[in-house]
Amino acid sequence: MNFFDIVMAICLLNDPTSCREQRLQYESFGSLNECLFEAQFYIAAWKAENTDVEIRNWRCEYAQQSAPPADALPETKS
Predict the structure, then answer these.
(1) Which domain, by its residues, includes 42?
(2) Contact criterion met (CB below 8 Å) for 28 and 2
(3) Which of 27, 34, 41, 50 lies 20 to 30 Å from 72 when distance is taken between CA atoms?
(4) How far is CA 64 from the centre of its chain?
């Protein structure tokens, strides 16, 4: 199973200079290239709920895996 981020550049419709990056994460057995096809459905669903923004462009990336919190790491003995 792969985790992907759909990275969208979005701008407010009432202020086109106010832009930011929005990430949608999903999991798939597919490849990064297949994400380019599958992402269109996730983007359409997200856009239907967020009508106040315009999607300028988007891309797929492998999801960034964050490190576990420090208190979740096993203790090391010295």
Answers:
(1) 2-64
(2) yes
(3) 27
(4) 9
Q: How many CB atoms lie within 10 A of CB 54?
A: 14
Contacts of 58 (CB under 8 A, 6+ apart): 6, 7, 8, 9, 39, 43
Q: In this structure, are residues 10 and 52 in contact, taking their beta carbons and an 8 Å threshold?
A: no
- Read off the pTM: 0.77
User: Across-strand partners of 12?
Assistant: 15, 53
pLDDT digits (tens, 9 = 90+) for 31-46: 999 999 999 999 999 9
SS3 of the chain: the string is CEEEEEEEEEEECCEEEEEEEEEEEEEECCCHHHHHHHHHHHHHHHHHHCCCEEEEEEEEEECCCCCCCHHHCCCCCC
Query: Considering its fold, how many domains does the chain have in total?
Result: 1
